[in-house]
Amino acid sequence: MELTLHLPPSDWYRNTSDNDLAYWGLDYPPLSAYQSLLHGRLINASLPDAVALRASRGFESPESKLLMRWTVLSSDLLVFFPAALWFVWAYMKGGIGVSGEERRDGWMWLLAMVLINPCLVLIDHGHFQYNCISLGLTLGAIAGVLTKNELVAAALFSLAINHKQMSLYFAPAFFSHLLGKCLRRKYPIVEVMKLAFIVLGTFALVWWPFLHSYEAALQVISRLAPFERGIYEDYVANFWCSTSVIIKWKKLFAIKPLKLMSLSATILAFLPSFVQQVKSPSNLGFLYSLMNSSFSFYLFSYQVHEKSILLPLLPATLLALREPQLYGWFVYFALFSMYPLICRDQLLLQYIAVLGLCFLIYYSHGGNHGKSLNIPCGAKVVLSLPLLGSLLLHITYLQIEPPKRYPFLFDALIMFICFTQFVVLTLCTNYKQWMLDTHSRSIGAKKDL
């Protein structure tokens, strides 16, 4: 905040005597910088010491903590909450995959699930970030698509990307769904051009201070793609980290081939979902596609963080009324995948509290999670194994010292268990998305009869 408050935009992403990028430099797109500038001005009006240039490094006081917390809460109230309300209204009005009874009884339950997202609450209000803004803009864009306000959706999603570049995890889903819709209209080229104009116009407005020179734009881009940090930085429940116990990716391959490998794997992972939406776009298919696309990036893309699980968790939450069992399983293991980070931040009590609150609401009246599933006994045993393992690791991680030779043994085990569950979940949702075509054809055949 102090950087954007005291330095000109030309120095925000450039290493200078006043801006040590190695200390805490900006590494998010310009919209995030503008948000920091706004919050910096608000804090400067009441507590200038908290945002003083250079002098504020390491500054901490009860007042500064309170002000910073309020900036996150206000972002929730101004961006995420309205977007959640708009989505639930659009979802219920459209009757997306739910019956009339579920629409009547389940809207408050669904809204509570979206708002009381334990992972988002812990990361934004405990670890202290502003994911609620980029996710709120994305949620607004999703609501725009569901209500056929595609141009508004394009603008909102462009803003989401310009707030946090990880919003690109959803880009294949938005692109394929909107392209599929455009191809079915009377003038598809005109429809595509309208969307392109909105996207390019939004990007131009956000990037305007940095478009005066190629060098200035390149400085921003170089901060947004820190490839030199490696294919993963900390323990994360994705393919590259989970398999690194056997295959030492960082030692075997240089950065360039790893970038190509991760790009290829990510594209191959989201391609089936992408093709399905171009071929047969639908609102329900779009929600599945959002989850499948973001999961593809989380599992296979370059430089994934533990916090990135928030992205596939968003569409999973939006599908909670239709897929309650899938959502309940996912939210538990998503939270568990952040357990080492939570322990490092000393947020264990908050971890237990938000997990308990989430499942208290989950098992409350309003959701259709109580519907029984015909799961074979053998499958139930298999499903119980990762759950039992996670419960044991919760205790082991805190109470037992890992071997000195393998200091991150428990971290690796946690990530491997979560990774296996995420793979199963994404295979399941990809299958469900493709089965929508079969279901649509069967309904069409019945109508013909």
From TrEMBL:
Record's keyword annotation contains Electron transport: no
Known EC number: 2.4.1.-
A single Gene Ontology CC term: endoplasmic reticulum membrane
Bilayer-spanning residue ranges: 66-91, 106-123, 135-160, 195-211, 284-305, 348-365, 377-400, 412-431
Pathway given in the UniProt record: Protein modification; protein glycosylation
Entry keywords, A to Z: Endoplasmic reticulum, Glycosyltransferase, Membrane, Transferase, Transmembrane, Transmembrane helix
Annotated localization: Endoplasmic reticulum membrane
UniProt cross-references to InterPro entries, sorted A to Z: Glyco_trans_ALG6/ALG8
GO molecular function: dolichyl pyrophosphate Man9GlcNAc2 alpha-1,3-glucosyltransferase activity
Keyword Transferase: yes
Record's bilayer topology term: Multi-pass membrane protein
Stated family: Belongs to the ALG6/ALG8 glucosyltransferase family.
Protein name in UniProt: Alpha-1,3-glucosyltransferase
